[in-house]
Design goal:
Oligomer: heterodimer
Number of strands of chain B: 4
Largest sheet of chain A: 6 strands, mixed
Strand order of the largest sheet of chain A: 5-6-7-3-8-9
Helix content of chain B: 55-70%
Structural class of chain A: alpha/beta
Strand content of chain B: under 5%
Largest sheet of chain B: 4 strands, mixed
Strand content of chain A: 15-25%
Order of helices and strands of chain B: HHEHEHEHEHHHHHHHHHHH
Strand order of the largest sheet of chain B: 2-1-3-4
Radius of gyration of chain A: 18 Å
Shape of chain A: globular
Number of helices of chain B: 16
Distance between the termini of chain B: 29 Å
Radius of gyration of chain B: 31 Å
Shape of chain B: elongated
Chain lengths: ~240, ~400
Amino acid sequence: MIEAHEVRKQFGPVQALGGVGFTARDGQITALLGPNGAGKTTLLRTLVGMLKRDHGTILVDGVDPEKDPFKVRSNIGFLTDQFGLYERLSTREYLTYFGELNGMKKADLDRRIDEVSEMLAMDDILERRSKGFSQGQRIKVALARALLHRPRHLLLDEPTRGLDVMSTRAVRQALISLRAEGCCVVMATHVMQEVSHLCDDVIVIAKGHTVAQGSPQQLCQRTGIANLEDAFVSLVGTDEGIAA
Amino acid sequence: MKPKLLIVFLKEFRETLRDKRALSLLAMFTVMYPIMFGYILNQQIERATRAEREGIELAVIGGAQAPTLMSQLKQKNITVRDIPEAGEEAIGDMLRAKKVVAVLRLPPKFADNYQAMRPARIELWFDSATEQDRRRRDVEEVLRAYNANIASARLLAHGVSPVTLGPIDLQRYDTGTNAARSAGFIGSLLGFLFFPAFICGMAAAVDSTAGERERRSLEVLMAQPVRTWELIGGKWLAAGSLAIIGITLELILAHIGLSWLPLEEIGMTWRMGWGDLAMLCLASVSLSLFAAGAQIAVAMNAKSFKEAQSVLSFVVIVPMLPGLIVSMLDLKTATWMYAVPMLSNQTLMREIAKGSDLGLLPYALTFACSALAALALVAFAGWRMKSERYVLAV
C-alpha cells in the first residue's frame, strides 16, 4: 500500500508538486491521470526516493522512501517511460544484472527469470541481445525487469505507449494477474479506455495538485458526466492540457 | 552476495568487450601506437646521423674547366661527381631524387671569362624543399673561399696586399651535433607514450555515463537499491581497467622497440630492464584510474555520447600540458615533478631510461598523486550523481 499526504516539491521558482495526496491499495490497479506536465514523473521519482519532497509524508508499506530508499526500492518495480535496455546484453544477462543489483541469489534468480519469462511469453527473446527488438519485445523485457525481484508494488509510467494491440493486451493480462496476486499497481497513463477497463481507482492530478480520487464510476457521478474522458477534462479544467 | 560495485563493474566490462568501436580503439593504441612511434623514432635517428656518415655529394657539370676548385672541394670532404651537360629538367629530377645535395654548373664560357678576368658565372642548383640546407651551405662556403683566394692572388699580382680586403677574420666553431639537436625532440616525443592511458578507457567511460543517459537507461539504474558511489565506482573501474590493460601492453611493446633502436647514436639511452619496466607499469596504474575518473566526471554531465566525446577531446590535452611546458622551459628534473599526474610518469620514465638511481620515493609519489586525484574525481562524480539537479536532468 502506498500512502501519500500533502506532498510538495519545488524546483527553483517552479512548483512541480503543490499538494498531492492519495492512497493506492494492495490488490488494486490505480491509475494516475493528468495532463502532460502535471507532475506525474516527479511524483513517481519522489515515491522511489530519487527526489526528496519538501513537505508531506509518503509511506510505502509503512516505510518512508526518504529514510530508507533501498528498502522501498527493493519492494517496488519501477517502469519508466523509457525502457532502458542495453543493446549489447542478452535479455537473460540484462535481467541477471538487475536481479543481482536487487540482491537476488543466483539460483533464485535463475528460477525467477524463467518464471517471469513464462508469464510474459518471452522465451523466444531470452537469449537474444536486445539490439533490433520490437517495441513490444522491449516493454516485455522492461516489465520482466520490474517484476523480477517480486516487488509488492509496481510503478508504471505509460506502460502501453507505442504498443500494438497484441502487446497491449499482453501487458494488460500481466497486470490483471499481478492484481490477483495482491500487488499494488500504480500506472500513469493517457489511455481512457485502459482506465475504464482496467483500473479500480483513479487519481487525477493537475498542476501538481490532487484534483480527485475515486473509481471511474465515482468520478463520472461526481462530475455528472457519463463519459470518463469528458469527466477528466472537466476535473482538470478545460484548457489546461494545451497550456501545460 | 556479490558486492554491488563488482556487479556494476562486471556488467560494464563485459559490455565494453562486446563494443567493437571501443576494442578497435584499444587495439589501435596498444599495437599501432608503439609501431608508429618506433617508425618515427627510427626515421629521426636515420636522418640525424645520415650526414655524418655519408658526407656531401655534389654533381658538377664542366668541372674540368676549374681544376683548382675541384681539388678544393675534395679537400673539404665533398664528393664530386662529374656529369655531362644536362637541361633544367634533368637537374631538377636529380635533385628531387635526393641523390646529390646540389648541382654545380660551370657554363662553357667559364674558362674564357676566367682568363679574361671577367666575372665568370657559376651556377649552383639546389632544391630548397629538401632538408639539405646545411650541407648546401658547406658547398657555398667552399665557393666563397675559392673566390676570395683568387681575388687575393689577382690583387697581389697588381701590387696590392690582399690583407686590405679582410679587415676581420671570422672563424666559426659549431659545437652542436645533429644528434644533440634531435635528442631533445625525441625526448619530448617519449612523453606521448603515456597518452593511450587517456584513450583506451574513454569509450567505456563515455558509454557507461553519457551513453546510458542518451539511451535513458540511467534513470532505471538510479532507481535500483544501489548507492551512487557503487554505480560510479563500478563504471570507473571498468573504464580504468581497460586503460590499465592498454597502457601496460603499449609500454611493453614500446620497451621492446626502444631497446632495439640505436638510440646511442643520437646520444640517448634506454637503460630499462624488465624489472624497471614492471615498476614503471605499476606506478602508472593510477594514471589510468585518474584518466578514467576524469572522463567519468566530465562525461556524466553530457547528454549524449557525441557531446561527451567532443568535450573530452579537449580534456585529454590538459594532462599533456605540464610535460610540454617543462620541456619547453627546459627545466631540470625536480622532486615536485613526481607530484603532478602524467608529468610524473613522463619524468619517471625519462630518469629510468637514463639509468638514474631513483630510490622508491619517485615511484611512490607518481602512484600516489594520480591515485589521489582519481579518488577526488570519483568522489565528485558520486556527489554530482546524487544531487537532485542531476536526477532531474537524467
